[in-house]
Write a structure and sequence with these properties.
The chain contains 3 helices and 8 strands. It is of the alpha+beta class and about 180 residues long. It has one domain: Sortase (Sortase, Chain: A, Beta Barrel), CATH 2.40.260. Strands 1-2-3-4-7-8-6-5 form an 8-stranded mixed beta barrel. Strand 5 and strand 6 form a beta hairpin. The longest helix has 15 residues. It is globular, with a radius of gyration of 15 Å. The N terminus is likely disordered.
Length: about 180
């Protein structure tokens, strides 16, 4: 059953281009949730954003909101600082500033702060045509705590379609 849920949500991420997938991280206390979430800060690109937990729509799509200044995470996924990959998705915006407009400018070594957790960027990449397996590979509830930031890139101004995804990976360097 867990594999089916992961596969379905991975397909959602490909279709929507943003989001996260399930994790068996176990119950989380309110204190842990507040400490893990808080706000997202990325000084190198001027990001200071709220984090909005979201569910899925009746059609099974990730319920990404309209805010272009906040980031989104699947409400049942791994929290930043927990074991596995915490995924935060944010919009780029063609008609004004979007929270992740400059995500592709991050470099290894840049710092990302989520709540009380501090991460160091390890990889920045631009991906075209992500398969379900590639998307599923972004998500895990195992291994050391890490962060994945994702947004759309290379917008075709004629069609409005984004041709790539920008994916940033970061490792936990300090938990308060």
């Amino acid at each position: 059953m867990r594999r089916l849920v992961v596969a379905v949500l991975a397909a959602l991420v490909v279709a929507v281009g943003l989001g996260s997938a399930p994790a068996g991280a176990g119950p989380v206390t309110t204190v842990e949730r507040e400490a893990a979430l808080g706000r997202l800060s990325i000084p190198a690109i001027g990001v200071n954003a709220g984090i909005i937990p979201v569910g899925v729509t009746k059609a099974g799509h990730l319920a990404i909101g309209r805010s272009v200044r906040d980031v989104y995470r699947w409400k049942h996924g791994v929290l930043p600082g927990q074991q596995g990959s915490a995924v935060l998705a944010g919009h780029t915006w063609s008609k004004g500033p979007g929270v992740f407009d400059n995500l592709g400018r991050l470099r290894p070594g840049n710092i990302v702060v989520v709540g009380e957790n501090r991460f160091e960027v390890t990889r920045v990449r631009k991906v075209t045509g992500m398969s379900r397996q590639a998307v599923a590979g972004l998500f895990s509830d195992r291994g050391k705590p890490r962060l994945v930031l994702i947004t759309c890139g290379d917008r075709n101004d004629l069609t409005g379609v984004y041709r790539t995804r920008i994916i940033v990976n970061a490792r936990l360097v300090r938990r308060r």
